[in-house]
């Protein structure tokens, strides 16, 4: 009887180990809270996950409808042709296929941007190369000297003549 009395008394008590375990489990994570509360990236990720789940739900729903339609109307050939037309329209308009189309379009735009960037870069490099060659030629012409160290005027006059002809 005494054991039973002790058990009844102990049922109301809480061990220190139980308190420590509860305290450890419910410890507040400030960094995680701030990320969830204020981080735009976190909110965007949450929205994307919800959107993906919704798209998948719609997709599986459509598959289920297609299977039910194909099983239910297999006896009527005329009805199956109408149902396939309706389901194909539904497929085209479903969110999954819209998302797929959007993804392909974005990939195409990205590819075009990369090609355009590569083309612009090569054009810039070619223009820079031509500029450097012209600058080097001008330097050679202007730096020519006579035996006495005087500049050769022939090259300078030819350069001035080219500039005048380009202007007019």
Which short descriptors sum up this protein?
about 170 residues, mainly alpha, 2 domains, 7 helices, about 85% helix, about 0% strand, elongated
Low-confidence runs (pLDDT<50, min 5 residues)? none
- Overall mean pLDDT score? 81
Task: Please give the number of β-strands.
Answer: 0
> So how many helices?
7
Total discrete domains: 2
Radius of gyration: 40 Å
Q: What fraction of residues sit in β-strands? A: under 5%
Could you say which structural class the secondary elements and strand pairing correspond to? mainly alpha
Helicity level: over 70%
Tell me the distance between the termini: 123 Å
GO cellular component, one term: nucleus
Pfam family, one: rRNA_processing
Region (Disordered): 1-32, 64-110
Biased composition (Low complexity): 73-87
Summarize the model shown.
It contains seven helices and no strands. Helix 4 packs antiparallel against helix 5.
General description of the model:
This protein is mainly α and about 170 residues long. It has two domains: about 30-95, no CATH class; about 100-168. It is about 85% helix and about 0% strand. The protein is built from seven helices and no strands. It has helices at about 1-10, 15-25, 30-40, 40-70, 75-95, 95-145, 155-165. It is elongated and about 100 Å long. The mean pLDDT is about 80. This is rRNA-processing protein FYV7. It comes from Atta cephalotes. InterPro entries: Fyv7/TAP26.
